[in-house]
Write a structure and sequence with these properties.
Blueprint (H helix, E strand, L loop, with lengths): L8 E7 L5 H13 L4 E9 L22 H18 L7 E8 L2 H12 L3 E5 L5 H7 L2 H8 L4 E4 L13 E2 L3 H9 L17 E6 L10 E5 L1
Length: about 220
């Protein structure tokens, strides 16, 4: 009797039931589906809310309990339906949900070790400044402490200011000046002054053109 010797591939997708959960679950399904014995474990952690001294606020019962497994299962089912529609030929991995109460990063790392996970998937929300300092970064701590690879996912949202091209295309005047001087002059008159952004210059043995055999960057 032949025996399937291929080991299982365990993916742990950690969600917070709020931001990032759809992306984490979707990515987890895709990664786990790529292995014939892929398993997807979805973990939701609820962090205990400490009582505030001034004024005294007693945490609610919900804040002292782990997330309801039924709610997490419903969330996973909704994304599973989308996964089947988007990738109808993909293998649906075995799926199990887990809920826990504690500090998120510690619970995720513990669960990964408990499951002998091959990959952990977490989301980052891009917090900055004081908010990031106070709340810390779950994804950073998991990546530092987990005993397996960690994939950090995030919705694509590039800042408009960063979308300005950092490198200008080859200036025809610069190419002509470089070709005429056999490379001794790199800049045309317009680009001979300092610029904040890099400017790429190319050289081709056949003369100025779009094909570059050598290139250098100057400012």
């Amino acid at each position: 009797m032949s025996q399937n010797l291929e080991s299982k591939y365990v993916v742990l997708a950690a969600v917070d039931m709020r931001e990032g959960s759809p992306l984490v679950i979707s990515q987890g399904l895709e990664m786990a589906s790529q292995s014939p014995r892929g398993e997807l474990h979805v973990l939701a952690v609820s962090e205990p809310t400490p009582a505030v001294v001034m004024p005294p606020i007693i945490p609610t019962a919900e804040a002292l309990l782990a997330p309801r497994p039924e709610r997490l299962a419903d969330l996973v089912r909704s994304h599973l339906d989308d996964f089947r529609k988007r990738l109808p030929d993909a293998r649906v991995p075995a799926i199990e949900v887990h809920t826990s109460l504690g500090y998120a990063a510690d619970e995720i790392v513990w669960m990964a070790a408990h499951l002998d996970a091959d990959l952990v998937i977490v989301a980052t929300h891009g917090r900055r400044g004081l908010r990031r300092l106070l709340l810390g970064s779950v994804s950073e701590k998991v990546a530092r402490l987990a005993g397996c690879p960690v994939m950090v996912v995030r919705d694509k949202a590039h800042e408009a200011a960063h979308r300005v091209p950092e490198i200008e295309s080859l200036c025809p005047d610069c190419a002509s000046a470089r070709f005429a001087s056999n490379g001794k002059t790199l800049w045309c008159e317009r680009h001979s002054v300092h610029h904040a952004r890099a400017h790429v210059y190319s050289h081709s043995d056949s003369g100025p053109g779009s094909t570059a055999t050598e290139s250098s960057t100057g400012t």
